[in-house]
From TrEMBL:
Name of the featured protein: Sodium/bile acid symporter family protein
Keyword DNA-binding: no
InterPro entries: Na+/solute_symporter_sf, Put_Na-Bile_cotransptr
GO cellular component, one term: plasma membrane
TM region(s), chain numbering: 7-25, 31-49, 70-91, 97-119, 131-154, 166-184, 205-225, 231-254, 275-301
Top-rank lineage group of the source organism: Bacteria
Keywords, in A-Z order: Membrane, Transmembrane, Transmembrane helix
Pfam families membership: SBF_like
């Protein structure tokens, strides 16, 4: 029953509401600069808290399962970019050039943390390994994602990437706050661990700020006039295709490599998902304000599709692994 919240949760509704608000009441004029400053502060705070939440003990404890972690990282940072590039001749005609740039950006992102662990837990996979893999993916993504973006989107019509500017922004807005959070974990770590539910507000609030600012700028540039309805439908097909292939690839790879059932579940959920929480702040740092709206739109759609599909898979696998007597008792309850 816990998985039902992933089908259309409050945060998804908040994202939709934020886009609608930006469509009718965009931030503009003299409010743009202070709003941008507040957004940058929120993004820095987000990565500071990510650093403070990441337990070094969990990393050390899970690091010995290197084959699993390596498989997840290869799926996240090698398989996905290859899919984006190799499928481009087939899928790019379904969308605009800007939207496919967003698809390529999506393919460079790290895995999710919270939902990957949640789905692994529901499906009765290797939760400690999921914690380690997802955390490692999120940390390495700070370095790998900008490098992949520079490789895949240089001179692309949808990407406006300046390597030196990107490195500077990544270091100042993402890396330094993250390192500060790690260094101060002995001081603030206990408070952060006790207030994870409250700190969720910072995670989601910073994303909503970036989305509101991004779509305000994009809509002022005529985003919806540049994206026909057919391209939005095509984007759904593109995201569904990439997710389907990645799920199939992680299933086959984990079986082929001889992992047990629990590890297979972990690889599937950690290796086939992309992080909205990391992706939108990164887009805010890497891309120009005028292009962010179209860049993050594929990620927002992919995020919802992956939650719905993975929620159904996790629930199905949990039911399969539940002994018949327990299954009957659950139905009776």
């Amino acid at each position: 029953m816990a998985s039902k919240k992933f089908f259309l949760d409050g945060f998804t509704l908040s994202l939709i509401s934020t886009v609608v608000l930006a469509s009718f009441l965009p931030v503009q004029g003299k409010f743009v600069a202070p709003f941008s400053f507040i957004t940058n502060i929120a993004v820095g705070l987000l990565f500071f808290l990510h650093g403070a939440k990441l337990s070094r003990e969990a990393i050390v404890a899970g690091a010995t399962h290197w084959r699993l972690h390596l498989t997840v990282l290869l799926c996240t940072f090698v398989l996905f970019p290859l899919l984006g590039v190799l499928l481009k001749p087939i899928l790019s005609p379904l969308v605009t050039a800007q939207l496919y740039a967003g698809v390529l950006f999506l393919c460079t992102l790290p895995s999710t943390v919270q939902s990957s662990i949640a789905f692994t837990s529901i499906a009765r996979g290797n939760v400690p390994a999921a914690v380690c893999s997802a955390s490692a993916s999120s940390l390495l993504g700070i370095f790998i994602t900008p490098a992949l973006v520079g490789l895949l989107l240089t001179n692309h019509s949808g990407g406006d990437v300046s390597p030196w500017h990107t490195v500077s922004n990544i270091v100042m807005q993402l890396l330094l706050p993250f390192i500060a959070g790690q260094l101060l974990r002995p001081v603030v770590g206990g408070w952060v661990d006790r207030n994870r539910s409250m700190l969720k507000f910072v995670d989601q609030g910073s994303i909503l700020l970036v989305v509101y600012g991004a779509f305000s700028e994009a809509l002022m540039e005529g985003l919806w006039h540049q994206i026909p309805l057919s391209a939005l439908f095509g984007l759904f097909v593109v995201c569904a295709a990439i997710l389907s292939i990645s799920l199939l690839a992680t299933v086959l790879a984990s079986r082929r490599l001889g992992f047990n059932r629990e590890d297979q579940i972990t690889i599937i959920f950690c290796g086939s998902k992309k992080s909205l929480a990391a992706g939108i702040p990164m887009a805010n740092v890497i891309f120009s304000a005028s292009s962010i709206g179209a860049i993050v739109l594929p990620l927002m759609l992919f995020h919802q599709i992956q939650l719905m599909v993975c929620s159904a898979l996790a629930q199905r696998w949990a039911t399969r692994r539940t002994p018949p007597k327990q299954r009957t008792a659950r139905k009776a309850a």
